[in-house]
Amino acid sequence: MEVLREKVEEEEAAEREEAAERAERARTEKMTRPVEVRKEETTLTQETLRDLEKKLSEIQIPVSAELPAFTKDTIDISMLPVSYKTNTPKEEQLLQLADNFSRQYSHLCPDRVPLFLHPLNECEVPKFVSTTLRPTLMPYPELYNWDSCAEFVSDFLTMVPLPDPLKPTIKREEKVLPKKYTIRPPRDLCSRFEQEQEMKRQQEIRAQEEKRLKEEEERLMEAEKASPDALHGLRVHSWVLVLSGKREVPENFFIDPFTARSYSTQDEHFLGIESLWNHRNYWINMQDCWNCCKDLIFDLGDPVRWEYMLLGTDKPELSLTEDDSGINDEDDVENLDKQDEDKSFDMPHSWVEQIEISPEAFETRCPNGQKVIQYKRAKLEKWAPYLNRNGLVSRLTTYEDLACTNILEIKEWYQNREDMLELKHINKTTDLKTDYFKPGHPHALRVHSYKSMQPEMDRVIEFYETARVDGLIKREETPETMTEYYQGRSDFLFYRHADFGPRVKKLTLSSTESNPRPIVKITEQFFRNPAKPAEEDVAERVFLVTEERIQLRYHCREDHITASKREFLRRSEVDSKGNKIIMTPDMCVTFEVEPMEHTKKLLYQYETLMHLKKEEKLSRHQVWESELEVLEILKLREEEEEVHTLTVSIYDTKRNEKSKEYREAMERVMHEEHLRQMETQLDYLAPFLVQLAPGEKLTRWQAVRLKDECLSDFKQRLINKANLIQARFEKETQELQKKQQWYQENQVTLTPEDEDQYLSYCSQAMFRIRILEQRLNRHKELAPLKYLALEEKLHKDPRLGELPKMFT
């Protein structure tokens, strides 16, 4: 450090010598001016000089376009604390240390980018970057983890490109003075005919460009891929580094604050690191970044790899291996601590206010509750929950062209929907709409893909199979077919396919429910049932309704390559003459894999045919119910899309109107009850004051008489209450004794039901007697206290004002 200080002093002396030479050169040029000019200068008076200085100050100096433009912040700085507008002595000392540190860094590393140490804040006051950080513990559990915290911060940030991508904007804003002298614009001498011809020529050129639009876009795409980036590795960017060790972080990783995405330190997107800082110190990377950040060692306690700015006691320690842990002795450590005591400098306290996020702001997330992020061929829109009436919180629109005019697809995310809608995907190319639902829909919907909400159109509906009794997981529908897939059924059915024919036209207007599509064919497939032999376990059955045929295909045995088949001709049970048709062998065509093992008789075939007729009727009914269910789902979805009902938590007292109204009603009822009690509170002197004339003043003897009458009346009421409780107690006791005597007399002839009734009566009677006894004892204890309390109230009652004077 002493050698570095000597080099800096030598450079400062050289700079002073150069400044002296420039001043001498300026004096020489002034002396070599023409004589006439010197004479004019000698004739200038002090007043003339002041006028000239005033005029020169009014002339605006053009600012070079290369300087970064400073955009003024919209924050009202008059409401900011004093720490935002001024620096404390310790902060000024820190800025001086930062300047000295920056000069040394520029001297040692002239080829590297200048350090980002003390930019200007909102009030254009330079502040050290480490003092802009103030660790704060927030009362929201979502901010305790890095992923949800990074997403919350990214929603609040809005990316604004720098005027100069090579360095941040740290210049002061220069006030633009109004121009006093301006030059008039020249006259327009252009020909109108030439302008019209130019417009025609431009229109022709524009028409030709529109014809070649697709080819140009493809050429641009290829050029974008092939053209190198001139500013690759030179742009300024800041991100967050999370070091491993604390809170069970296994490895180091980066966080992009604008996208909330995490990247490994080995990622190729990060080309290098100039410096690091936190709320305690500032470090410069002294390692070579030729291989991006893959070979960097993030041991901030190593001064060879990371040069720190402040020599404080809280700097990280060098992580040593087991072999190097015993190199330094205790004496060496003590000597180093003594040398560092005089050179240490603690970081000043942060000048920013403590972060306070209200629940409304935390829920709003984005500024004003809305944020739009434009990407290449895509646009992302975000909204706060409950901001849109339909629960929309995010929308991603993908475009086909760079101008973002032709939409390819739209994805919309929803929250707090009563219909459990979570995502809506719209493909503009195929006009296919897909709705995704969370568990909890009345029809257990999971996915609904469709092109039109009209019935009997192409659609695919997926269900949550655990929420349905029939185990249906998927239903595919077209104008002519319907296919259903099942899972976990007791009859091992997993597939049903129905083919429909043209609907029979009716003269009267009828709906889809009253005029269903005629079923032509039903195909059902089953899983293997281990409880049945393979030659008796049906794998597939086909009901040819119009042809009156039923086809069966059984499961294949493990040692066979073919399966048994059977086909039945489903004829009517009676002929045209009314005679009953008997089962004949030609009504069943059978193919047996092993015909010698199992020979099915005609009776078995007849019973199988009767069973299949019942199953066909049941299958047709289930297909009809499936059609009705589709109609109900479509009707319900149309109502849900029109209403857009949102759910509100019972803990959200601000939006939950029902709980808010209930709470207000309860408070109103309690208030009215309190007022009613206050109004209906008995006046212990009212019955006795009625005997006197209105407005008559009480005398001493009248006050004494009123007091005695009130106390005697209250005493009599206490006695009556005690007598009433005593009478009820004696009555219950006598009735219990009579019941016990009756039980002793008839104990032998009683039935079990009579004994149960007797025991139940005794239990209830004992309970009443015990309660009456407790009430009587309590009344005896409180009666004297109530009497004394009333006597004290009467003594202090202002209406009996003459009463106290008797006893004085």
TrEMBL record:
Q: Which regions form coiled coils?
A: 192-227
Record's Pfam families? Answer: CEPT76_peptidase, DRC7_C, MORN_DRC7
**Bias-annotated ranges (Basic and acidic residues):** 16-44
**Which cellular components does GO assign to this protein?**
cytoskeleton; motile cilium
Task: Name the domain of life.
Answer: Eukaryota
Keyword Coiled coil assigned? yes
Region described as Disordered: 1-44, 320-342
UniProt keyword annotation of Cell division present: no
PANTHER family listed in its UniProt record = DYNEIN REGULATORY COMPLEX SUBUNIT 7 (PTHR35249:SF2)
Name of the protein this chain belongs to: Dynein regulatory complex subunit 7
Annotated organism of origin = Saimiri boliviensis boliviensis (Bolivian squirrel monkey)
